Amino acid sequence: MGRPRASAEIRRQQILAAAKRCFRRKGYAPTTMDEIAAEYGLSKGSIYWYYPSKKAVLTDLFQVWVEETLNRVITDIGGIPSARDKLIAMGEFFARSLHEDIELYMSTGT
Q1: Confidence label for 107 from pLDDT (cuts 50, 70 and 90)
Q2: In this structure, is the dihedral angle defined by the CA atoms of residues 44, 46, 51 and 56, taken in order, positive or negative?
Q3: For residue 33, what are the contacts with CB-CB under 8 A and spacing of at least 6?
Q4: Closest by Cα among 4, 77, 96, 19 to 50
Q5: pTM of the full predicted structure?
Q6: Pair 104, 25: CB distance under 8 Å
Q7: Domains in the chain, please, with CATH?
Q8: 3-state SS string for 21-69
Q9: DSSP code of 79?
Q10: What is the pLDDT of residues 29-55, one digit of tens each?
Q11: What's the Cα-to-Cα distance from 75 to each of 51, 79, 80, 85, 92, rounded to whole Å?
Q12: What CA–CA distance (Å, rounded) separates 77 from 75?
């Protein structure tokens, strides 16, 4: 009996997680779809079933990041009464987020 098939959404999440790990290690430009597939543990063709290109993977990864980030920001600033303090908290949040994922934004070029 084979492995049960994961839903399309679970597969996308797995591909995005693999891509994120690859992009962190090497940066976006030097990472290949073959490397994402190897990290993912399935064939490159299985990635193309969900994403037509590496750029589409990055676009979806960015969209997920934006949605998760906005949800966290809304939760974090919800109890802050003044607009000024909310803006400060948002700035601090984005600075922390950038620092935590700096590898995604920097390419080693190797």
Answers
A1: low
A2: negative
A3: 44, 47, 48, 54
A4: 19
A5: 0.73
A6: no
A7: 8-104 (1.10.357.10)
A8: HHHHHHCCCCCCHHHHHHHHCCCHHHHHHHCCCHHHHHHHHHHHHHHHH
A9: T
A10: 999 999 999 998 988 888 999 999 999
A11: 31, 8, 10, 14, 14
A12: 6
